[in-house]
Write a structure and sequence with these properties.
It is a single chain. With 234 residues, the protein is of the alpha+beta class. It has a single domain (3-221), classed as Sandwich (Jelly Rolls), CATH 2.60.120. Helices cover 27% and strands 30% of the residues. The protein has helices spanning 10-22, 52-82, 119-122, 158-168, 174-178, and strands spanning 3-6, 28-30, 37-40, 86-88, 96-100, 130-143, 150-157, 184-187, 192-196, 200-204, 216-226, 229-233. Strands 1, 2, 3, 4, 5, 6, 9, 11 and 12 form a nine-stranded mixed β-sheet that branches. It has a three-stranded antiparallel β-sheet with strand order 8-7-10. β2 (28-30) and β3 form a beta hairpin. It is globular and about 50 Å long. The two termini are 21 Å apart.
């Protein structure tokens, strides 16, 4: 369901976290003005589709210059694991960062319960050569709170959810289905990339306690198979 592969050492993650903080002027605050949740990079699931390309054009060069070494390591790891070429999707945002400050780290299961369908916002349905049936999502944990972090997962695919909703002929959202089933938990490890299809119902996992100074910083990305290669974006 989820595959975890080591990419960075704890020491490399510590330096990477420092580099992300040095780019504080480029962070984008998400949510309300008091929120301590930020992104660094264009995020297709958050940015207005009309504005997303411009955000990507502005931030991609900054990410490439500062984190080119990280992208090289990531591409090498994914290519080896997937046994196929891996590149970056032209015109889309490169994999970027989630940054959660202490006050915004979840201590109750209230994060969005969802499927990763952001490709519907970024790739045309008739895009030639794109395989929409086997997407890829990945998370690299860079810094985690003292109590750790992870992903809540339910044994429900997007196809099964759609079939169930049609059978009931009723309005429902993924969280409605999650309320009927117990979640499983995939814990993150600092320096490891967690890979999955994104089409299993999931949610950012809560922790039982947050301590002063806790942070949750991750690299986020997705990929679609297109014209003989996995194309990365966020």
């Amino acid at each position: 369901m989820i595959t975890s592969l080591t990419l960075l050492s704890p020491e490399e993650c510590a330096r990477l976290g420092g580099s992300i903080k040095e780019l504080r002027e480029y962070w984008i605050q998400r949510g309300n003005p008091q929120s301590a949740f930020f992104t660094l990079g264009a995020a297709s699931y958050l940015d207005d589709p009309a504005e997303y390309p411009a955000v990507a054009r502005r931030l991609n060069p900054i990410l490439s210059e500062r984190f080119g070494w990280l992208y090289e390591r990531l591409v090498e790891l994914l290519s080896r694991r997937l046994r196929a070429p891996v590149t970056f999707a032209e015109g889309l945002g490169q994999p970027g960062f989630h940054i959660w400050g202490t006050s915004s780290i979840f201590v109750t299961p209230v994060a969005s319960v969802h499927f990763d369908l952001q490709y519907l916002r970024t790739w045309p349905e008739n895009a030639p050569g794109v395989d929409f049936d086997r997407p890829l999502s990945f998370t690299l944990a860079i810094r985690l709170p003292q109590r750790g972090g992870g992903l809540n997962i339910w044994d429900v695919t997007y196809d099964r959810y759609v079939q169930f909703r049609r059978r009931l002929d009723a309005r429902m959202v993924p969280a409605d289905l999650a309320a009927l089933l117990p979640p499983m938990r995939h814990p993150y490890t600092v320096g490891a990339v967690a890979m999955h299809s994104g089409l299993m119902l999931h949610q950012i996992g809560e922790i039982d306690q947050v301590f002063p100074g806790d942070e949750r910083i991750t690299l986020q990305g997705h990929a679609l198979w297109c014209r003989g290669a996995w194309q990365l974006y966020w």
